[in-house]
UniProtKB/TrEMBL annotation:
<dbReference type="InterPro" id="IPR016040">
    <property type="entry name" value="NAD(P)-bd_dom"/>
</dbReference>
<comment type="function">
    <text>Catalyzes the conversion of GDP-D-mannose to GDP-4-dehydro-6-deoxy-D-mannose.</text>
</comment>
<keyword id="KW-0521">NADP</keyword>
<dbReference type="GO" id="GO:0008446">
    <property type="term" value="F:GDP-mannose 4,6-dehydratase activity"/>
</dbReference>
<protein>
    <recommendedName>
        <fullName>GDP-mannose 4,6-dehydratase</fullName>
        <ecNumber>4.2.1.47</ecNumber>
    </recommendedName>
</protein>
<dbReference type="Pfam" id="PF16363">
    <property type="entry name" value="GDP_Man_Dehyd"/>
</dbReference>
<keyword id="KW-0456">Lyase</keyword>
<comment type="similarity">
    <text>Belongs to the NAD(P)-dependent epimerase/dehydratase family. GDP-mannose 4,6-dehydratase subfamily.</text>
</comment>
<keyword id="KW-0536">Nodulation</keyword>
<dbReference type="InterPro" id="IPR036291">
    <property type="entry name" value="NAD(P)-bd_dom_sf"/>
</dbReference>
<dbReference type="GO" id="GO:0070401">
    <property type="term" value="F:NADP+ binding"/>
</dbReference>
<dbReference type="GO" id="GO:0042351">
    <property type="term" value="P:'de novo' GDP-L-fucose biosynthetic process"/>
</dbReference>
<feature type="domain" description="NAD(P)-binding">
    <location>
        <begin position="7"/>
        <end position="337"/>
    </location>
</feature>
<dbReference type="InterPro" id="IPR006368">
    <property type="entry name" value="GDP_Man_deHydtase"/>
</dbReference>
Length: 356
């Protein structure tokens, strides 16, 4: 039987890298869309690189952009994918307040462009579609934990754009019979997480402080609560959705919540430091309980105009229908992230010494 063909938008991102690795392991021919950039943006997928001259290669990269309809139609036509995973997005919630129109173009209309490509090219019966929907849709939560039936209340331009993408995916499923599913994914992290999301920002800073490369970690809202899982587990759920006889929408989450404050404490504890807290509001600081050194401080720059305070997912449907569970406990994830950041920073330090 011929290998299944998958197209991943956002292949250079955290989830794209894990998903590409997972699908290649399952024997897929994998195509990924990458953006043109003046500096290299393929670091996360470099380990998957295959020589373009290898006649048996199964991993292909194409230039593209979610804001370019003709480009997307051309790629879908040439690749004729069995499965499309739409992971590309301007994915940073705070940044979406700075570039709301671009966020809507890439995240909302970009999703429409891909669905239109499937429809216009007559691939409605062939190509299955996964949309990277998000727990940010719940925003100002009115029910805890949140499930597939919890009402949405987006609290950022990002979430509002993703709300359109969610519903246009449902609409193309109902209107044209496309096998299109939304994965409503709660926060998932890894050593490949972008450096400006809070978990990675914390684990990098903990490693840098440990090596004497940084003094203080500046954060925003310490009392925000999230349901954090491991990206490696979550991409398996994306795939499982597209293997079902019928398309549907599923929450992927751990069901367990922690605050940003607790994440900070856990990350420092991995390197043997205990953080204690002093002061209140913007004057609050985190102190090394052994040395008294200031480790954490608040910078109001990181407060959002509208915040999502508390997210906790109910993954029952995914467990019962897909057999999916979040396998990695937070303590294990944090340990992996801190260890990886320590290793990266040590290598950088060593190369600086060598180049001296
Ligand atoms: P990342 O930010 O790590 O990756 C986003 C990817 O999209 C990158 O490959 C990026 O390219 C690409 N991209 C951004 N804009 C465009 C564009 N205009 N055209 C083409 N490609 C573009 O996100 P994650 O991997 O963490 O998340 C994957 C998806 O899942 C996103 O849609 C995100 O919104 C959603 N999501 C993520 C969750 C999480 O906790 N991680 C939870 C729920 C949903 P480049 O590398 O060049 O920047
Ligand atoms: P989120 O992730 O907004 O949930 O979106 P992020 O890690 O950016 O923020 C989580 C919470 O931490 C608080 N916070 C800070 N956040 C950042 N980035 N930097 C800080 O210094 C800081 N201090 C406190 C935030 O206010 C927030 O409450 C992520 C993205 O991956 C989305 O694409 C995805 O849809 C959702 O997760 C589910």
């Amino acid at each position: 039987m011929a290998a299944k063909v998958a197209l991943i938008t956002g292949v250079t991102g955290q989830d794209g890298a894990y998903l590409a690795e997972f699908l290649l392991g399952k024997g897929y021919e994998v195509h990924g869309i990458k953006r043109r950039s003046s500096s290299l943006n393929t670091g996360r997928i470099d380990p998957l690189y295959q020589d373009p001259h290898d006649p048996d290669r199964t991993f292909f990269l194409h230039y593209g952009d979610m804001t370019d309809s003709a480009n997307l139609i051309g790629l879908v036509q040439a690749i004729q994918p069995d499965e499309i995973y739409n992971l590309a997005a301007q994915s940073h919630v705070q940044v979406s307040f700075e570039i709301p129109e671009y966020t809507a173009n890439a995240d909302a209309v970009g999703t429409l462009r891909l669905l239109e490509a499937i429809r216009l090219l007559g691939l409605t019966d062939k190509t299955r579609f996964y949309q990277a929907s998000t727990s940010e849709l719940y925003g100002k939560v009115r029910e805890t934990p949140q499930s597939e039936t919890t009402p949405f209340y987006p609290r950022s331009p990002y979430a509002a754009a993703k709300l359109y993408a969610y519903w246009i995916t449902v609409n193309y499923r109902e209107a044209y019979g496309i096998h299109a599913s939304n994965g409503i994914l709660f926060n998932h992290e890894s050593p490949l997480r972008g450096e400006t999301f809070v978990t990675r920002k914390i684990t990098r800073a903990v490693a840098a402080i440990h090596l004497g490369l940084q003094d203080v970690l500046y954060l925003g809202n310490l009392d925000s609560w999230r349901d954090w899982g491991h990206a490696r587990d979550y991409v398996k759920g994306m795939w499982a959705m597209l293997q079902q006889p019928r398309p549907d929408d599923y929450v992927l989450a751990t069901g367990v919540v922690h605050s940003v404050r607790a994440f900070v404490e856990m990350a420092f504890s991995k390197l043997g430091r205990r953080v204690t807290w002093q002061g209140e509001g913007v004057d609050e600081i985190g102190i090394d309980s052994a040395s008294g050194a200031k480790l954490v401080a608040i910078d109001p720059r990181y407060f959002r105009p509208t915040e999502v305070e508390f997210l906790q997912g109910d993954p029952t449907k995914a467990r019962e229908r897909l057999g999916w569970v979040a396998e990695t406990p937070l303590a294990e994830l944090v340990a992996e992230m801190v260890a990886a950041d320590l290793a990266v920073l040590k290598r950088t330090q060593e190369s600086l010494i060598t180049n001296d």
